[in-house]
Amino acid sequence: MTIDLARPYLLSERQVADFRRDGFIKLKDVFNADELRHYGEEITRLTIALNTQTLPLEQRSTYDRAFLQVMNLWEESERVREFVFGRRLAGLAAALLQVDGVRLYHDQSLYKEPGGGITPAHADQYYWPVDSDRTITAWVPLQAVPQEMGPLAFFAGSQAVEFGRDLGISDESERAITANMEAQGFRVVDEPFALGEVSFHLGWTFHRAGPNRSARPRSVMTVIYMDRDMKLKAPGNAMQQADWERWCPGAKAGEVIATPKNPLLFERAP
Fold first, then answer.
1. Which of 28, 106, 162, 176 has its C-alpha lying 20 to 30 A from 80's C-alpha?
2. How far apart are CA 4 and CA 262, in angstroms?
C-alpha cells in the first residue's frame, strides 16, 4: 500500500472565509479508509499501552472520565511520526490560519472509552504559553463518529469571546462557558463525523463533546499547530508553565518557539 501524506487537500476561498468567521471547520474525505487504518492501528495501540490511567470510570474526575490521552506519540513510533509530520494536515493548518508556515506544538491522542463522560466546554489556548491567537488543532477521528459516540461540538464564532478563557476543563467550565454561550446566542454545531472527516479549530474557539454512549471506543488523533513565527509568552497560569517545560523546553519568553520538539512542518514556497 502506498500512502502519500504530502498530497495536498485544496481549500476554497469560501472555506477559508467560513473558518475565519466560525473559528472551526469540518472537512470531508481528508483521509481515506486505508490511511486511517494504517496509522490508526498504531496510534490506538500506543495510546492503550502508554496511558497511565488505572482507575475505573466511576472513580475518576470529570476530566479523567472524558478520555484517555497520550501526548507526543510522534516520539514513540516512526509510523506515528509520519502521520504527525504529514504535509497534508500541516498545509491545511497553514492555509486556515493564513500564515506562511506552521510548527508542531504537540500531538495528542484522545481515546473516549465506552461509557466515557462528556468533554466539558473549554478553549484549548488556556493551556498554552503562546503570544498570539494563530494556533489550530486538527481533530482526526480514526473511525466514523456517530452522535452516540460523542463527536466534537463547537460554539460557532466564539473565538473572540474572552469570558471563560481563564477556565481549564472542569465541571465549572462546562457550566459557566455553556451558560455564557447560550446567553449570547452562539450556535452550537454538534454533528456526527463521517469516516475520513477532520475538523480544525482555533485555540480560542470554545468546544465540547458529549459522552460515549456506544459500546465502542472513540479513537481520535489530534495535532496542534502554531504559526511558524509564534513566540513564547510568560506563562499566565500553572498549566502554561507546565506546558512550557514539557512541550517547549529551552524556549525563551519573547523568542520564537523553535525547539527540537517544535519542528517546522509546513512552509509556503516563496
1. 28
2. 23
pLDDT per residue as tens digits for the range 172-199: 999 999 999 999 999 999 999 999 999 9
Determine the Cα–Cα distance for residues 163 and 47; give it in Å rounded to an integer. 33
Domains of the chain: 23-267 (2.60.120.620)
Amino acid at 15: Q
Side-chain half-sphere of 124: how many Cα atoms within 13 Å? 26
**Residues 219 and 44 sit within 8 Å (Cβ to Cβ):** yes
> Which of 167, 204, 220, 164 has its CA nearest to residue 43?
220
| pLDDT per position as a tens digit, 125-163 | 999 999 999 999 999 999 999 999 999 999 999 999 999
The cell for 102 is 506552521
Instruction: Write down the pTM of the prediction.
Output: 0.95
Q: Look up residue 125 and give its three cell numbers.
A: 489556548
* Residues 194-221: tens digit of each pLDDT: 999 999 999 999 999 999 999 999 999 9
